[in-house]
Design brief:
The complex is a heterotetramer of chains A (167), B (627), C (106) and D (478). By secondary structure, chain B is mainly alpha-helical. Chain B is built from 26 helices and 4 strands. In chain B, strands 1-2 form a two-stranded antiparallel sheet. In chain B, strands 3-4 form a two-stranded antiparallel sheet. Chain D has 478 residues and is mainly α. Classes of the chains: A mainly alpha (167), B mainly alpha (627), C mainly alpha (106), D mainly alpha (478).
C-alpha cells in the first residue's frame, strides 16, 4: 500500500504542477482531471469509498466537464496567453516558498503533539453510517446545500444570459 | 446706633453717587454739585462726632456686618473699624473732600457731564472711606481697588481725548501691578496668621506666639510695600501720577495729592506692627522713599506745566513720607500726610484757579503777573508754597523737619538725600510761584482781557486750606506733640522721643537755610534775571534728561510694553499658527493617507492575492509560530 | 478493513496536502488565464478536502467526511456561478485575461 | 419632585418651541426656560430642606446602565447657572430676527437640556451621552446661523466639532475600561474601584484630553477663537457661558475623584499648563483686532485660571473654581451681549472701526464698563471672590505660580481697558449709535445685579456648594 501511496502522491503533485504550467487550457483541464482521479485514489486508500465515488462524479464528471465546455465555448484552446512580468512571477515564487515554509514550519512545530494512530474498530465511514450522520445531525446544512445549489443554478443561468442592451 | 451712624458715614457719598448717576442728568444747574457736597459733608459731620467720641473714650468702634468670604483656614467679614488712625484719616479725607466738592461746583459748572463728575467724586470718597474704615485687609483692598477705579474714571473724565484715556489706563494698570503685590502679601499673611483682621494679626504678633519664620513676614511686608508703591507713586511705579494730571484739577487735588496717593502710607501705618518685624523691608522703604523724593524733585526742577510741577512735587513729598515710614517714624509720616494734604490741596486748587482764569492754559511760560489780578489765589498760593518749602512757622516746616531729623539720627546718607530734595523743592516751588504770579503777563491779549479772580466758591476752599496749611503744624509741635499721643494706641512701637537739644536746633537751622538757598536761587534766576524757560527744543544736556523725566517712560515702554506686544505678535503669528497648523496637519495627514492609500487598490487581482497570501502567512506566524 | 494510516503516519498526508495547497497558491499567482486560476483554486480546495478526510480517518469520526461532502457541494455551486461570470466577462471583453480586469482600482 | 423635572421641562420646551412656529418660538422658549429656572429653584429649595432630589431609572440591564440623576450642591448650582443663563440668552436674542426661528430656539433649549443632563448624570454612560448630545445643537447653531463667509465658517465649525468629539472619544474609552473593571458606570461605584497608578494615569489622560479640548487649555485651544467669532452671539454665549463649564465641572466631578493619584503627581505640570494659558490668552487678547476674538482670548485666560484652581486639589481652589465659573458665566454672557449690540449696530467686528460710542450712549457705556470691571475682577464684584479664592489656592501650592496667575489682574486690566477705550471712548463716531432699549437694559441690569449682589454677599452660594466640594475632596484624598 505504501508504494501505492507514493505513486498516487507523485501523480497528484505532478499533474497539479502540469495543470498550472501547461500553456493550453485544454491540457490543463485534462491534467486536472488526472489529478482528481488520483485524489479519489487517496480516498480509496482511506477506505472512504463513498467519498471517492462522489468525488469522481462531482469533480471529474460535473465540474471538469463544465470547465471544458466553457473553454471550448470561449475558444481558448490555443496557447496565446502572454506571460506575466518577471516581477509577478518572482512574487509568485516567493509566495509559494513563503506559504510552503510557513505551513511546513507550523506543522513541524506541531508534530510532537501528534499521537500515533490507534484503531478503535468502530464503523464510522460506511455509507450507512454517513447517511445517518448526514440526515440526522446535519439535516439542516444538507437542506441548505440543496438550496445553495438551486440558487447557484439560477445565478449561473441569469449571469450567462445574453444581456439585452437597451436601444 | 453706632452701626447706623457708621453706615451713614460710609454710605452717604454712595447715595450721592447713586442719585447723581441715575438722576443727575435731570437735576438742573449746580444741584448735582450741591448734592455731592452735602453727601460728603454729611460724612464729615459723622466723622467729626466719631472723632470726638473716640479721642475722649480712646476705645475704637468696631462694626461687624456679615460674612463675606470663606477660605480654607479663615473667614473674611464685611467689618469696619473706627479707631484713632482711621478717624484721623477720615477727618481729612472727608474734610478736604467737602472743600474740593465745593470748589468743583464752580470749577466744573460749564461741563456737560457735571453730574457724572460729582458721581465719580462721591464714589471715590465712598471707596476711600471703605479703604480707611475696613477692619481687615480685604475690605481695605475693596477700597484700594475702588479708588483706583475712580481715579481711572476721573483721569479719563474728558474721554474724547485719547491722551487722557491713555493716562487713565496707565494709572489703572500701574496700580494693578502694585495691587498684585498687595494680593500676594495678603495671601502670605493669610497663611501665617489665619486671619486678615488687623486686630487679630496684631494680637498674634504681640503675643509672641508666632511659629512661622520671620522671613515669611518680611516677604509679606515687601509685597504689601509693592502695593503701596503702586498706589502712592513710588519708584518704580510712580510714572502714572504725573500723567494723571490729565484729569480735572479738583481731581488732582483730591485724589492725586491729598487722599488716594496717601493710601500706601495709611496701609503701612495701619500694619506698623508688621513692618516693625521686617527691618530689612523698612530699609528698602526708606531708601526707595528717599530716592523717589530726590528723583521726583529733580524732574520737577525743570517742568513747565504747572500741574506737572505739582505732581512731581507730590511724588517727592510722598517719598519723604515713605522715608519716615522706613525709619519707623509712623506718626511723623502721618503728620506729613496731613500737612501735605492741606498745602498740596491748596496748591492744586490754586493752580486750578489759575488755569480757570487762563482758560485752560497750563504752561507757565505763558503766564506771569497774575499776582495783580488774582489776589486771593496768590496769597493762598504763597502761603502753601512757603509751607511746602519748609519755612517756619508754616505747617510743612514742622513735619518735614521731623522727618529729616529722624533721618539724621538713623541714617545720615538718607538725611543728605532728603535735604537735597527739600532744597530742590524750595527752588522749584518758588520758580513756579515767580513764573506764574510775578513779572508781566506772557500770554495772548485775548487771555489777558479775560483774566479775573475766581468766584467765591473757588476762593473759599483756598482760604480754608491756606489757613490750615499755615497752622496745621500745631497738631504736632516738636517736643509737645498732640498727634503722637493721639496715635499712640495704634502704633505698636513708639519711636524714641527726640530730645530738643542743640543738634536738633542746628538741624532746624540747616533746613531753614537750605530752604532759603532754594528760594534765593529761584529769586536770582526768575526775578533778577527775569529768565523764562525756553522752548522744548532749546533744552540741552542734563536738563534735557530731566525735562524728559530721565526717559523712564520710554525705558518702561521699551522694556515692558514693547516686549509684551512683540510677544503677542509672536504668539499670534507663530505659535497660534503652528498649533493650528499642527491640528490641521492631522486632518491633512488623514487626507493624504486616504489618497495615497487608495492607490494601493490598483485593481490588479494578482497584487491583491499576493497581499492576501502575505496576510495569511503573517496571521499563521503570529498565531502558531511567534511564541 | 485496514486503511493507509495503519501503515504510514498522518504526517505524510499533511505534507502532501500542504504541497498541493502551495501548488494551488502558486498557480493562482502565476497564471493570467482566469480559467486556469479557477483550476488552481480547485486544487487548493482538494488539498483541504484531502486533509479533512485524512483527519476524519485519523480521529475515526464521520464529521470530517460529511464536511468534505458539503465542501464539494459548495465547490460545485461555486464553479457554476464562477464560470457563468467568466462567460459574461468573456462576452464583454473578448478575453479572460485577469490583468485586464482592473476597473476596480481606487 | 426631583431633578428629572428640570430635564423634562427643557425637553418639552424644546418640542413645544419647535411646534409653536416661527412667530411664537422665542416667546415659548423664553417661557419654558424661565419655567426650567423656576423648577431648578424649587429643587434647590428642596435640597436645602434636606430632601432627596435624586432620580434613578433602570435603563439597560446588560451593560448595567441606569439613568441616575443626582442633585447635590455642585451639580445643582451648575444647573442653576445653565437654566438662568439660558433664560438670559433667550431674552437677549428676543429682538433679533432669525430665519427658521423655531429650530433656532428649539436647539437652544435642547442644548440646555443636554447640558443640564451632563451636570446631573451620575452614570458615566448617560453622562457621556449627554456630553456628546450637547455638541450637536451648538454645531448646527454655529453652522446655520453663524456670521462671516460660509466656507470659512463651515471649516471652523467642523474643526470645532471634530476636535471636541475626538477628545471625548478618549473619555468613552476610559469609561468602557472602567466598566470592564467594575461592572458599573455609576459615579459612586467608579470612585471606589482600586486602580493601579498606571491605570489611573491613562484614565486621567483620557479624561484630560476630553476636558482640555473643551475648556480649552493650551495647546488645545485653537478651535476656540474662530468659533466664538463665527458663531451667532447666542451660540457664543452658550459656548463660553455654560458649555466650557461642563468640562471644568467634569474635572471636579469625574476626573479628580476617579484618578486622584496622577492628579496629585502631575499637579504642578497641570497648573503650570493652565497658568501658561492665562498669560498666553491675555497677551494674545492684546493683539486682537476683532472684538469677539478678543473676548474669546480673554475667556481663554480666565478659564485657564479656573482650571488651575481646580487642579490645586484644595478646597479653596475647587470652591473658587465653582464660584468663578458662575461669575465668569454671567460676565462673559454680558460681554458678548454688549459686543453683539455694538456689532449689530455698527455691522462690523473690527475694533478699529469703532470708537466714540460713549458720547451717544451713556447708559450702555456704564453697563459695559461695569461688565468690563467685573471681568477684571474688581473687588465687590462676584468675579473677585472667585479670583481671590483661585489665586489663594494657587498660592497654597506655590507662591510663584500665584504670582504668574496673578498677572491676569494686570494683563486683564490692560487688554480690557484698551478694548474699552478703543471701542467706547474718543471723539464721536460718524455712525449713529442708538442707546440701549428697555429689553437690552433689562438683560444687562439682571446680569450686573447678580454680579454685584453676590460680590458682596456670596454666602448663600458658598454655603450651598461647600458640602459637595468637601465630599469631592474627601474622595480625592481617600
Amino acid at each position: 500500500m505504501l508504494t501505492v501511496f507514493y505513486i498516487l502522491s507523485a501523480i497528484t503533485l505532478g499533474t497539479a504542477f502540469l495543470t498550472i504550467l501547461s500553456k493550453n487550457p485544454i491540457h490543463s483541464a485534462i491534467y486536472l482531471v488526472l489529478c482528481f482521479f488520483s485524489i479519489a485514489g487517496h480516498y480509496l486508500l482511506f477506505n472512504a469509498q463513498f467519498l471517492a465515488i462522489v468525488h469522481i462524479i462531482v469533480y471529474s464528471g460535473a465540474i471538469m466537464i463544465l470547465m471544458l465546455f466553457t473553454i471550448m465555448l470561449m475558444n481558448l484552446n490555443k496557447e496565446d496567453e502572454q506571460n506575466k512580468s518577471v516581477l509577478t512571477r518572482f512574487a509568485a515564487v516567493i509566495a509559494l516558498g513563503l506559504v510552503a515554509f510557513v505551513l511546513l514550519a507550523t506543522f513541524i512545530k506541531a508534530q510532537p503533539v501528534i499521537e500515533g494512530y490507534q484503531v478503535s474498530g468502530q464503523d464510522y465511514q460506511s455509507i450507512k453510517v454517513l447517511g445517518k450522520v448526514l440526515l440526522n445531525e446535519y439535516m439542516v446544512p444538507f437542506e441548505f446545500a440543496s438550496v445553495l445549489l438551486l440558487v447557484s443554478m439560477i445565478g449561473a443561468v441569469l449571469l450567462s444570459k445574453k444581456e439585452h442592451i437597451n436601444s | 446706633m453706632e452701626t447706623n451712624l457708621a453706615l451713614l458715614l460710609l454710605l452717604a457719598p454712595f447715595i450721592g453717587f447713586l442719585i447723581n448717576v441715575f438722576a443727575g442728568k435731570k437735576l438742573s444747574g449746580n444741584l448735582p454739585g450741591i448734592l455731592g457736597t452735602v453727601a460728603v459733608a454729611t460724612s464729615f459731620a459723622v466723622t467729626l462726632s466719631f472723632f470726638l467720641q473716640v479721642s475722649s473714650s480712646k476705645e475704637p468702634v468696631m462694626i461687624d456686618l456679615f460674612e463675606w468670604m470663606q477660605l480654607r483656614n479663615f473667614k473674611v467679614n464685611i467689618a469696619f473699624q473706627l479707631d484713632q488712625l482711621s478717624l484721623l484719616w477720615l477727618m481729612f479725607v472727608t474734610g478736604i473732600g467737602t472743600l474740593i466738592h465745593m470748589y468743583s461746583i464752580s470749577y466744573m459748572h460749564d461741563d456737560e457731564n457735571v453730574h457724572k463728575f460729582f458721581a465719580y467724586l462721591n464714589l471715590f470718597v465712598f471707596f476711600m472711606i471703605t479703604l480707611v474704615m475696613g477692619s481687615n485687609l480685604l475690605i481695605m483692598f475693596i477700597g484700594w481697588e475702588g479708588v483706583g477705579l475712580c481715579s481711572y474714571l476721573l483721569i479719563g473724565f474728558w474721554y474724547k481725548n485719547h491722551d487722557y484715556n491713555d493716562a487713565a489706563k496707565k494709572a489703572f494698570i500701574m496700580n494693578r501691578i502694585g495691587d498684585l503685590g498687595f494680593l500676594i502679601g495678603i495671601f502670605i499673611l493669610g497663611f501665617i496668621f489665619n486671619s486678615l483682621d488687623y486686630t487679630v494679626i496684631r494680637t498674634a504678633i504681640e503675643s509672641g506666639k508666632l511659629l512661622q519664620p520671620s522671613w515669611g513676614i518680611s516677604i509679606a511686608a515687601l509685597c504689601l510695600f509693592i502695593g503701596a508703591c503702586g498706589k502712592s507713586a513710588q519708584i518704580p511705579l510712580y510714572t502714572w501720577l504725573p500723567d494723571a494730571m490729565a484729569g480735572p484739577t479738583p481731581v488732582s487735588a483730591l485724589i492725586h495729592a491729598a487722599t488716594m496717593v496717601t493710601a500706601g502710607i495709611f496701609m503701612i501705618t495701619r500694619l506698623n506692627f508688621l513692618f516693625d518685624l521686617a527691618p530689612e523691608v523698612q530699609n528698602i522703604i526708606a531708601i526707595v522713599g528717599a530716592v523717589t523724593s530726590l528723583i521726583a524733585a529733580s524732574i520737577g526742577l525743570i517742568q513747565n506745566d504747572i500741574k506737572k510741577v505739582l505732581a512731581y512735587s507730590t511724588v517727592s513729598q510722598l517719598g519723604l513720607m515713605f522715608l519716615a515710614l522706613g525709619l519707623g517714624a509712623y506718626q511723623i509720616a502721618v503728620f506729613h500726610v496731613i500737612t501735605h494734604a492741606f498745602f498740596k490741596a491748596c496748591l492744586f486748587l490754586g493752580s486750578g484757579s489759575v488755569i480757570h482764569a487762563m482758560h485752560g492754559e497750563q504752561d507757565m511760560r505763558y503766564m506771569g503777573g497774575l499776582r495783580k489780578v488774582m489776589k486771593v489765589t496768590f496769597i493762598t498760593f504763597l502761603i502753601s508754597t512757603l509751607a511746602i518749602s519748609g519755612l517756619p512757622p508754616f505747617s510743612g516746616f514742622f513735619s518735614k523737619d521731623e522727618i529729616l531729623m529722624t533721618a539724621f539720627h538713623d541714617n545720615k546718607p538718607l538725611w543728605v538725600i532728603g535735604s537735597v530734595a527739600s532744597i530742590m523743592t524750595a527752588f522749584y516751588m518758588f520758580r513756579l510761584l515767580y513764573l506764574t504770579f510775578y513779572k508781566d503777563f506772557r500770554g495772548t491779549e485775548e487771555q489777558k482781557k479775560h483774566l479775573h479772580e475766581s468766584p467765591g466758591l473757588i476762593t473759599f476752599p483756598l482760604i480754608v486750606l491756606a489757613i490750615l496749611a499755615l497752622v496745621g503744624g500745631a497738631i504736632s509741635l516738636p517736643g509737645n506733640s498732640w498727634l503722637n499721643e493721639y496715635l499712640a494706641p495704634v502704633i505698636a512701637k513708639q519711636s524714641e522721643h527726640h530730645h530738643m537739644g542743640t543738634t536738633e536746633y542746628m538741624l532746624m537751622g540747616v533746613a531753614i537755610i537750605g530752604a532759603f538757598i532754594g528760594i534765593g536761587l529761584a529769586y536770582a534766576k526768575y526775578i533778577k534775571q527775569s529768565s523764562v524757560p525756553g522752548q522744548d527744543s532749546e533744552i540741552t544736556g542734563f536738563a534735557k534728561v530731566l525735562y524728559n523725566k530721565f526717559y523712564v517712560d520710554e525705558i518702561y515702554t521699551a522694556l515692558i510694553v514693547k516686549p509684551i506686544y512683540a510677544l503677542g505678535s509672536f504668539f499670534k503669528n507663530a505659535i497660534e499658527v503652528a498649533i493650528s497648523g499642527f491640528i490641521f496637519g492631522l486632518g491633512k495627514l488623514a487626507n493624504v493617507l486616504g489618497t495615497e492609500g487608495k492607490t494601493l487598490q490598483n485593481g490588479s487581482i494578482g497584487f491583491y492575492l499576493f497581499a492576501f497570501v502575505l496576510g495569511i502567512c503573517s496571521i499563521i506566524v503570529y498565531i502558531f509560530l511567534a511564541k | 478493513m485496514e486503511n493507509i494510516l495503519q501503515q504510514i503516519g498522518i504526517e505524510n498526508y499533511i505534507y502532501l496536502s500542504t504541497l498541493l495547497f502551495c501548488v494551488g497558491v502558486f498557480g493562482v499567482l502565476f497564471r493570467r488565464n482566469a480559467i486556469v486560476m479557477f483550476m488552481s483554486i480547485e486544487i487548493m480546495l482538494n488539498a483541504v478536502n484531502l486533509l479533512l478526510v485524512a483527519f476524519s480517518t485519523y480521529h475515526q469520526d464521520a464529521a470530517g467526511q460529511v464536511f468534505v461532502f458539503f465542501s464539494m457541494a459548495v465547490a460545485a455551486a461555486e464553479v457554476a456561478v464562477g464560470l457563468a461570470i467568466l462567460v459574461a466577462i468573456y462576452r464583454n471583453l473578448n478575453n479572460i485575461d485577469i490583468d485586464s480586469l482592473k476597473k476596480l482600482k481606487g | 419632585m426631583d431633578v428629572s423635572f428640570i430635564l423634562i421641562t427643557l425637553l418639552i420646551g424644546a418640542a413645544a418651541t419647535y411646534f409653536a412656529g416661527n412667530k411664537w418660538a422665542s416667546k415659548v422658549a423664553l417661557l419654558f426656560s424661565v419655567a426650567a429656572f423656576a423648577v431648578t429653584l424649587c429643587t434647590v429649595n428642596l435640597l436645602n430642606n434636606g430632601e432627596n432630589v435624586n432620580s434613578v431609572t433602570r435603563w439597560i440591564k446588560n451593560p448595567m446602565i441606569s439613568i441616575s440623576l443626582v442633585g447635590d450642591g455642585l451639580s445643582l448650582i451648575m444647573v442653576l447657572l445653565t437654566t438662568s443663563l439660558t433664560a438670559i440668552i433667550i431674552l437677549a436674542t428676543l429682538k433679533n430676527t432669525f430665519k427658521n426661528a423655531k429650530s433656532f430656539y428649539a436647539l437652544i433649549l435642547f442644548m440646555a437640556f443636554a447640558m443640564v443632563g451632563t451636570f446631573l448624570s451620575a452614570d458615566g454612560f448617560v453622562y457621556y451621552i449627554f456630553w456628546e448630545l450637547s455638541l450637536i445643537p451648538i454645531y448646527f447653531i454655529a453652522l446655520i446661523w453663524g456670521g462671516g463667509e460660509a466656507e470659512a465658517r463651515k471649516k471652523d465649525v467642523i474643526k470645532f466639532f471634530i476636535y471636541t468629539f475626538a477628545g471625548s472619544l478618549f473619555m468613552l474609552v476610559a469609561f468602557i475600561y472602567l466598566y470592564q473593571k467594575t461592572g458599573s458606570f455609576t459615579n459612586g461605584a467608579l470612585v471606589r474601584v482600586n486602580l493601579t497608578d498606571k491605570e489611573q494615569f491613562w484614565i486621567f489622560l483620557a479624561f484630560f484630553l476630553a476636558y482640555a479640548i473643551k475648556i480649552p487649555i493650551i495647546p488645545f485651544h485653537t478651535w476656540q477663537a474662530n468659533v466664538y467669532q463665527k458663531a451667532p452671539s447666542a451660540g457664543t454665549m452658550l459656548l463660553s457661558g455654560i458649555m466650557l463649564k461642563m468640562a471644568i465641572y467634569s474635572i471636579i466631578r469625574w476626573q479628580l475623584p476617579l484618578a486622584p493619584a496622577p492628579a496629585k503627581e502631575y499637579m504642578h505640570v497641570l497648573i503650570i499648563l493652565c497658568v501658561a494659558g492665562v498669560i498666553y490668552g491675555s497677551i494674545l487678547a492684546l493683539k486682537q483686532q476683532d472684538l469677539k476674538k478678543l473676548l474669546a482670548y480673554s475667556s481663554l485666560a480666565h478659564v485657564g485660571l479656573i482650571a488651575a484652581g481646580a487642579y490645586t486639589l484644595t478646597l479653596d481652589g475647587l470652591r473658587g473654581a465653582v464660584l468663578q465659573m458662575i461669575a465668569h458665566g454671567f460676565v462673559v454672557v454680558g460681554l458678548f451681549y454688549a459686543a453683539e449690540i455694538i456689532i449689530r449696530r455698527y455691522n462690523t467686528t473690527e475694533i478699529s472701526e469703532m470708537g466714540g460710542i460713549r458720547i451717544q450712549t451713556p447708559r450702555f457705556t456704564s453697563m459695559f464698563m461695569i461688565l468690563v470691571l467685573a471681568s477684571v475682577a474688581l473687588p465687590a464684584t462676584f468675579n473677585f471672590i472667585g479670583e481671590f479664592e483661585l489665586l489663594y489656592s494657587l498660592a497654597q501650592t506655590n507662591i510663584w505660580i500665584a504670582v504668574l496667575g496673578g498677572t491676569t489682574i494686570i494683563l486683564g486690566a490692560f487688554y480690557m481697558l484698551r478694548m474699552f477705550q478703543q471701542v467706547m471712548l474718543g471723539e464721536q463716531n460718524a455712525k449713529p449709535f442708538a442707546d440701549v432699549t428697555f429689553g437690552e437694559g433689562f438683560v444687562f441690569v439682571t446680569i450686573i445685579g447678580i454680579l454685584l449682589f453676590f460680590g458682596l454677599y456670596p454666602k448663600p452660594i458658598i454655603d450651598f456648594i461647600t458640602p459637595a466640594l468637601e465630599n469631592t475632596l474627601n474622595l480625592i484624598n481617600r
